[in-house]
Structure formats: C-alpha cells, structure tokens
Amino acid sequence: MKNLEDMINGIRPVDRQAMEEAWKCWDSLCKPLRGLGWLEEVLVQIAGIYGTPHPHPDRRAVVIMGADNGVVEEGVTQTDSSVTIQVLENMGDRLSTACVMCNLAGCELIPVNIGALTDGRHPKIQNRVVRHGTGNIAKGPAMSQEECIKAILTGADVVCGLREEGYNLIVTGEMGIGNTTTSSACAAVLFEQDVETVTGRGAGLSTEGLERKIHAIQKAIQINQPDKEDAVDVIAKVGGLDIAGMVGCYLGAAYCRMPILIDGFISAISAYLAGMLCRTAKEYMVCTHCSAEPASRLVVERLGMSAPLQAGMHLGEGTGAIMALSMIDQAVNVYYHLATWDGGNVEAYTHQV
Q1: 65 burial via Cβ count (<10 Å: 0-12, 13-18, 19+)
Q2: Distances 245 to 127, 173, 177, 249, 310 between C-alpha atoms, Å
Q3: 166-202: per-residue pLDDT in tens?
Q4: Could you say which of 21, 283, 317, 347 is catalytic?
Q5: For this structure, is 317 an active site residue?
Q6: How far apart are CA 252 and CA 261, in angstroms?
Q7: DSSP-derived secondary structure letter, 77
Q8: CA 45 to CA 346: how far, in whole Å?
Q9: Distance CA 51, CA 49 (A)
Q10: Which of helix, strand or coil describes residue 231?
Q11: What is the pLDDT of residues 312-327, one digit of tens each?
Q12: Residue 1's pLDDT is what?
C-alpha cells in the first residue's frame, strides 16, 4: 500500500443485502427469534463483509504489532523495554499466552516488529521496523507524521498480504512495554478526559508507579498539544508505532473486505483512531471484550459498540479477541447445523410488535 488516501477511498460499505439474507437464515432456524444475541449479530455482520449469506470465517490470523515506547524512561512500567523483543521472540517459538490460546482456537499468530529497539532474530518475526522505538512523549513527539503514516501503511500491508495468502479474518493484538501509557494519553486527548480517569496500572504498577505514569502523560499532552480532531497528529505526538500499525490493520482489513476483531484497550483506541480516518472502516470491526483498564469501557462506548465478553482480562496480545473466536465458532456451528422450523416439527415464531 503506497498511499493512505487511496486506501481510504477504496474502502466500501458492507453488503446490506447479504446481511438481510443472513437474518432470514437465522430466523428460519428452530429457536426463539434472535435468541442467540451477539452470536447472531456477528455472523450477520460477517456475511455483510464477505458479501454472502453463507460466510465461513475459518482462516484466521492474529496479527501482533510490536514496538517500544520512549516514555518508559519516565518509570511508567514495571519492566524495561528489553521485554518487548523477548516476548516477540517467544511468540516466534509459540511460547506466549496468545500462542497457547491460538493452538486451541485454530488460528495462526503473526508477530510483527514494527518498532522495537532491536530487530527480531526468530524467522517467524516479520521485521517491518519504521524506526527503532519512539521518542519519549514526556519530552517531545513520539514520531514524525511521516513515520506515523508509514507505520499505518505497514499495518495495512501486513493484513493485505495475509489476505493474499488466503486468510479471511484478522485478530488484532499488540506487544510493547509502555503502550498503556501511550494509549491512555490518546484516550485523554480524544475524549477530553482527566488523565487520572483514563489511566490504569497496566501490567501491575505500584501506586507510586501509577503516579509517575499519570504525571508523564500530563507532561506529554502539555508539551505536544495534540489536535484531537486529527488522528495522525494524536498518534504521532502521544501515541506509538504499535498503535499506528494496528490502525493500518483496521484500514487494511476493511480495504480487503475482511472482518477484524478488536481486542482490549490498546486495540480499541487504535480502532477508534482508524474510524476517525475512515468511518466506513468501522463496519468491518468486531468488538469482542472490555478490558479491565479504566478507559476500556469508555472507548467501546465511543466506538458505538458493545463487548460480549466482560472477563476482567487485561493481558493484551489479542487474548480477549482470541477468546471471542470460540463464540464465533459456535455461531457458525448453529447457523449451519440447527434444524429449521419444519425440520424440528415446531411452529415458527413470528416477530412481535
């Protein structure tokens, strides 16, 4: 993908006719009308994305955008930045939490190094580095606007490449020490919230560490003055390369007409930013779970979506969205295997007003 504007202009609405036909299929099945709630809704949405009432979202890839964040210098994390590339290496060896979950969910995990401090060594890591780590947002911008756009296009390229390989559903994920700090900074700016309201303990910060994190975000916003109406400006000034890469994943999935699952807080912030760049891209996004991070529920609400899973998870790596794949699988299972009203010898329910 060479041009962000061309990609955005190439994103088309989902197929409403296919969605209507999928609803008719659901309503023909021997069960209370709309009784499976989100399971029915998500399969109808996927039908609209594929343009057919007979969707088979069975080739799934979890795309992990990995990057380091200069704000770690401010003592906002429990671990240092070396953990980012180590976890990406572990993902290459299929040792991380998300990898173990992928084994059961029947999907492939793709670790992408879009901005760690060093290149990945494992052959399964895609080294697509825009720059090795961002600037410290408490002292200046995370990156230039040109680097931000390059990272967005890189994320889109990864997803479109997977589409060419035959994958037809994307799960978003991230790995980057310090990225709950950058995500909270984005949330504070985008939703005009007090920093304290949208900032949590991330991967287990102490109370003192949380205070440093809040102070660092406040400094970042004061120094950088990001424009809340400009998604690229917000990412470049107080965001991160993993966020920019995930924004590209959302836009790329919409461009290639694939459903893309939103994971937790960081993934949802990225989804919101992608929606700012292209409202139609939201039609391809599937919200899966609400993270335990303080601002997660707020972001989901601002997306105009709801999350079916409320499990207190806040691990990242796409783990919440991977859990939702089992719900999608059950939706597909019932959609194709449940008897119709005639087959079940039951009088059909009708919609009541």
Answers
A1: buried
A2: 13, 10, 15, 6, 26
A3: 999 999 999 999 999 999 999 999 999 999 999 988 7
A4: 317
A5: yes
A6: 13
A7: S
A8: 28
A9: 6
A10: helix
A11: 898 999 999 999 999 9
A12: 67
